[in-house]
Design a protein that fits this description.
Rossmann fold, single chain, alpha/beta, 3-stranded mixed sheet
Length: 358
């Protein structure tokens, strides 16, 4: 039996990964460390909490003593670090939090793993151990209308969020280069699917459309992102953890480049049909002042993971967006619970006060 430390496992991608692994594998134990900030929610883990293969620990990845204790208690074979502050707007408002969690938290995990996995007497790493850093294509910066990010694309982050993730990636690479630590880094495109906190584009728009609220679209809405269904991302991380070449970076993309305005209009159309509601229309769209430092286009080249590990996304955007919209409609109680209190105050600060451009 392999034992994994999953950090940030109550968040969007982390919780989906836990559900995926519990469904796919019988011979594993998942220790889930999450501090349960606004985006980490035990509502995402109801089924997993009843599974004996899943152990939840509330705590901070920056807590040296706690992380050391967990390594001693569980003798982890693999660490997969999902824990991160991840919303660009929040990083612009408060970059220090992103440095603490995304950089210092990563360094703490790396150092505690090194202490547990490196055999000083034998001057070598214990067999079968690996650290996987879940990163983002945003560390590469922005693309022009042509071309794609490859694993050799220079790191040129533009926001405090992507800069903090780039900093974490550099530390992971440094632990490999300096100590020979067994690591991989994955860099994914925009994820979507169930359990995504509704500050992100797709769940935000679904939630607003249902309530006939305005749909705030940054600038002209022509920013392009490559959309990856979250379960496809989970299958890729599983493969990298097991078979990825030590020290390598793997890009994970959905091969679904869409503009933001296309995404919003698709959600409007699907919900109007699904709810048979004529009040749902494109008149709800309101263009707001663009985000500072907003990258125009991201696009992922996933050839490396396809050729080396045989991974390819299984879910088209047309399928995935229907699955996602229907899940949010069928889980209104979940949406209500995670959008109460602090989130509502944050929403007003981020969007309602921005200057409307009609």
């Amino acid at each position: 039996m392999k034992t994994y430390l999953i950090t940030g496992g109550a968040g969007f991608i982390g919780s989906n990964f836990i559900h995926y692994m519990l469904k796919k594998h019988d011979d594993i134990r998942l220790v889930n460390l999450d501090s349960l900030t606004y985006a980490g929610n035990l509502e995402n883990l109801k089924e997993a909490m009843e599974d004996s293969k899943h152990v939840f620990v509330k705590g901070d990845i920056c807590d040296k003593e706690l992380v050391s204790e967990l390594f001693r208690k569980y003798d982890f074979d693999c660490v997969i670090n999902f824990a991160a502050e991840s919303h660009v707007d929040r990083s612009i408002s408060n970059p220090e939090i992103f440095v603490r969690t995304n950089v210092m938290g990563t360094v703490n995990l790396l150092q505690r793993a090194k202490e547990a996995w490196y055999d000083d007497a034998a001057n070598e790493w214990k067999v079968g151990k690996k650290y996987v850093q879940v990163s983002t294509d945003e560390v590469y910066g922005a693309l022009g209308p042509e071309g794609y990010f490859t694993e050799s694309t220079p790191i040129q982050p533009h926001s405090p969020y992507s800069s903090s993730k780039a900093g974490a990636d550099h530390f992971v690479k440094a632990f490999y280069d300096t100590y020979g630590m067994p690591v991989n880094i994955t860099r994914c495109s925009n994820n979507y699917g169930r359990y995504q906190f509704p500050e992100k584009l797709i769940p935000l728009m679904i939630n607003n459309v249902k309530q006939h609220r305005q749909l705030p679209v940054y600038g002209d809405g022509m920013q392009i992102r490559d959309w990856l269904y979250v379960e496809d991302h989970c299958s890729a991380i599983d493969l990298v953890a097991k078979r990825g070449r030590i020290g390598e970076v793997y890009n994970i993309g959905g091969h679904n480049e869409k503009t933001n305005i296309y995404i919003v209009k698709t959600i409007i159309e699907r919900l109007r049909e699904r709810l048979a509601d004529d009040q749902i229309s494109e008149e709800l769209i309101v263009h707001v002042q663009d985000r500072l430092g907003h990258d125009r286009r991201y696009g992922i080249d996933s050839d490396k993971i396809r050729k080396e590990l045989g991974w390819y996304p299984q879910t088209s955007f047309e399928e995935g967006i229907v699955f996602t919209i229907d899940w949010y409609l069928e889980n209104e109680a979940w949406l209500e619970r995670v959008t109460s209190g602090d989130y509502r105050q944050y929403y007003e600060e981020m969007y309602a006060k921005k200057e409307s451009r009609g």
